Amino acid sequence: MSERVQARWLTTEQQQIWRTFLLGVARIQEHLDADLRRHGLDLAEYEILVCLEESEGRRLRMSELAEAVHQSRSRLTHTVSRMERRGLVARVSCPEDRRGVWAQLTDAGFELLRSAAPSHVESVREVFVEAVDPDDFAALGRAFGRVLSVGRESAD
Amino acid sequence: MSERVQARWLTTEQQQIWRTFLLGVARIQEHLDADLRRHGLDLAEYEILVCLEESEGRRLRMSELAEAVHQSRSRLTHTVSRMERRGLVARVSCPEDRRGVWAQLTDAGFELLRSAAPSHVESVREVFVEAVDPDDFAALGRAFGRVLSVGRESAD
DNA sequence: GAAGAGTGGTTGAAGTTTCAACAAACCCCA
DNA sequence: TGGGGTTTGTTGAAACTTCAACCACTCTTC
């Protein structure tokens, strides 16, 4: 496209990396989803299970959970409802703040997580951790750390 | 969770990088979507426009386009239908292969792309290209290149 | 201690994606 | 030449996400 006054395009190399990145991310998600689907889970649900499992009492307030797994509240409400129907989590109303609701990992949820985790981790390793040269992997950690700090800098 | 027979977990560091990566990706998509939404587009639609714009005659077979933007055929059918309703693309039936359909970028689609591109590129730069140290950025290119080659190796 | 502002979470409808089934056209080969 | 198998793309329903509105509760503040 024609050059405009201030438009700064990316160099060919930057563009290529950017596209490789987009495809790579898609590929990773595909790979992980394919694995988790065999356990009847998707990545979002898996992350919910992990978060709960790691929390005190294996439960978290809906809003905390939403934050942790990077979902909107509304989406989480729906997702948790579905998971509740399947018996993976339970809603427990929170005594201190009666608006509040805990999402509580059930035993069944924990068992499912336990059965899904090994092959999930193996998938992560396969498609990502071991695919990449260790130095590049470390660089990747720094890189995304920087991405996360963008726009937060002045706020700290 | 307890250690099992063969389960190889990630090291703390690997795990941390993995999570940073997941959050970083979410952040990037959020950032880009927020920008594109101001033009009434999302990332998937934008990619469709870009792909078409770069193709011979500004058109592509549906299946080629699906491949290029990494969407299922069905999803692409629906997405293109919506974009067609908005006048951004047109369907043209393909004379050589009468099963085939070209998705053809319209002038309106091109104009929208032209108006959306500068700030989109600026967003990419902001949240990604410039956020990251150049060496790490190059490493990232290598890393995702490797990710893409996993599982294809024996096939080539 | 009650009005107003804010927070936590849900709801239902509209919009989007996925899934399985399908129709039309092509390809091959006898 | 006309089956059978494959490829292309669409369809409609089910599943999921988004969006705006909403209720119930808490936190001020006067």
TrEMBL record, chains A, B:
<dbReference type="InterPro" id="IPR000835">
    <property type="entry name" value="HTH_MarR-typ"/>
</dbReference>
<dbReference type="GO" id="GO:0006950">
    <property type="term" value="P:response to stress"/>
</dbReference>
<dbReference type="InterPro" id="IPR036388">
    <property type="entry name" value="WH-like_DNA-bd_sf"/>
</dbReference>
<feature type="domain" description="HTH marR-type">
    <location>
        <begin position="1"/>
        <end position="149"/>
    </location>
</feature>
<dbReference type="Pfam" id="PF01047">
    <property type="entry name" value="MarR"/>
</dbReference>
<dbReference type="InterPro" id="IPR039422">
    <property type="entry name" value="MarR/SlyA-like"/>
</dbReference>
<dbReference type="GO" id="GO:0003700">
    <property type="term" value="F:DNA-binding transcription factor activity"/>
</dbReference>
<protein>
    <submittedName>
        <fullName>MarR family transcriptional regulator</fullName>
    </submittedName>
</protein>
<dbReference type="InterPro" id="IPR036390">
    <property type="entry name" value="WH_DNA-bd_sf"/>
</dbReference>
